[in-house]
Write a structure and sequence with these properties.
single chain; alpha+beta; 11 helices
Length: 471
């Protein structure tokens, strides 16, 4: 056994080391790229931040003969448009969006409220056109004008450019009237989403990021498709225990924001929504002062999420996109491309995916190796190596035991065993078959069997008896 162990044990140890090494290689995590936390959060959340446009078209009937006024009304097509835009965030893969109530308030106003707001706009248009004061225009139009129809529209613009109809599923109240939160539904599947956090865990001076579509970022100098790109600004929590006049809690933040940001998500370091931007601080000398903005806590928003029966879920799109980004940032472009292409198959209008696919294809030649790709080959090799180790161990230890057992049989048949004394016929114990003892065909019957063993033992007994008699 010692001679066998000299080469079987080292070989077994090498095979075991190879098995261990394969498991280590398979479980090596991809290297993380040198990307800042803010950039990661921006890329993770940007595809789920949407622009919301809420407006109403009010039709007018003019009951006086005044060609000049009618000419203006014809230019307006006898209707006025009122409304505005804000931001929101998708929170479920099937198209539920959280935003402010005041962002979609025209969809919930009474007809007369909408008509009054539209009439004020019409009066302003006429006063500016005819260069008269507001009250003069108002008194004239109120006597001869009435609204005929109201058409409300809520549209959601996705970062990829799709424009979809929105349906208000739950609604709080605009600023200074109640809880400024609402839930809007669009048709879709496999949409990217952002998870909801817990605003009760928010602490003063926590880092946060505000994402949305601020009007201050819109400019005639930008391309039309720039309006589809959201803006993310960094800041901190300034105060956690403030309330509105109605008693609704709000969180104060110092991140820059302006109108258009309303309803946009306030995101924590975990990439979770902890609030929705709702209003700004008062102006000073007629000027906006940045760094004094307020958000509806996400726990307040959750009340309306629950009313709408929404589940805050991640889709397969989220998982694949995030995995692709991590691989891309780590330099595993080949594997990132596979993830990005999978995203494109299940959600073709993803806002970022075409660019990442193109970049991954360009960098393919520089792609790093990922050992987990070869897991199947490693498993097969480990199985073969394990079997070889088992065979070597059996060969080393079991083989040696058999030789010892065979050697123990032969001395037992000698004189020291007192097998009947001189001249007696020995009693033969159980013995291995003749071929294992390397005997000759002593009885010349053409085979080596137990009879040959008996003959060999008898001859040995005779020799021993002879030696014992001094011959």
């Amino acid at each position: 056994m010692k001679k066998r162990a000299l080469f079987t044990i080292p070989i077994s140890l090498l095979l075991i080391a190879a098995i261990v090494a394969s498991f280590v290689l398979i479980n090596i995590k991809p290297a993380k790229g040198n990307v800042s936390q803010a950039q990661r959060l921006n890329e993770y959340t940007k595809p789920a931040v949407v622009r919301i446009i809420d407006y109403a078209l009010v039709g007018w009937q003019f009951n006086d003969y005044n060609p000049e006024v009618e000419a203006v009304l014809e230019q307006l097509k006898y209707q006025t448009l009122i409304g505005g835009s804000g931001s929101g965030a998708i929170i479920s893969s099937d198209g539920y969006i959280v935003t402010n109530a005041h962002v979609v308030e025209y969809g919930k106003m009474e007809d007369q409220e909408v008509a009054d707001a539209a009439f004020q706009q019409l009066v302003t248009i006429m006063a500016d056109h005819f260069q008269v004061d507001y009250n003069t225009a108002y008194n004239y139009l109120v006597a001869y004008t009435q609204y005929t129809e109201i058409k409300r529209v809520t549209k959601v613009i996705l970062p990829g450019g799709d424009v979809l109809d929105g349906e208000i599923k739950s609604y709080g109240a605009p600023i200074n009237q109640g809880k400024d939160a609402a839930v809007v539904k669009i048709e879709g599947k496999n949409l990217p989403s952002i998870p909801l956090g817990d605003s009760s865990e928010v602490q003063n001076q926590d880092n946060i990021w505000v994402s949305g579509y601020p009007a201050a970022a819109d400019s005639d100098l930008l391309s039309p498709d720039s309006s589809l790109v959201s803006t993310m600004n960094a800041g901190q929590i300034s105060a956690t225990d403030k309330k509105t006049d109605q008693g609704s809690p709000v969180i104060q933040i110092n991140a820059a924001a302006t109108h258009g940001n309303s309803g946009g998500p306030v995101i924590n370091e975990k990439g979770q929504i902890i609030g929705l931007l709702t209003f700004r601080g008062d102006t000073v000398n007629g000027q906006e002062v940045q760094g004094f903005n307020f958000a509806v806590p996400v726990n307040t928003v959750k009340e309306f999420v629950n009313q709408a029966g929404v589940r805050n879920t991640k889709s397969e799109t989220n998982r694949l996109y995030k995995e692709g980004l991590e691989l891309y940032w780590g330099g595993y472009y080949k594997h990132a491309l596979e993830k990005f292409e999978a995203v494109q198959r299940i959600y073709p209008n993803h806002s970022e995916i075409k660019e990442y696919i193109g970049n991954s294809e360009e960098k393919m030649s520089k792609s790093k190796m990922l050992w987990s790709d070869y897991a199947t080959f490693f498993y097969i090799g480990d199985g073969v190596a394990g079997l070889l180790v088992l065979i070597l161990l059996v060969f080393t230890f079991a083989g040696g035991s058999k030789n010892k057992a065979a050697a123990a049989v032969l001395p037992a048949a000698g004189p020291s065993a007192n097998m009947g004394g001189q001249g007696s016929t020995p009693t033969v114990p159980q013995a291995p078959s003749a071929p294992e003892m390397n005997l000759n065909d002593l009885n010349k019957d053409g085979k080596v069997d137990i009879q040959d063993l008996l003959i060999a033992l008898q001859e040995q007994q005779k020799k021993q008896n002879k030696d014992g008699n001094g011959e």
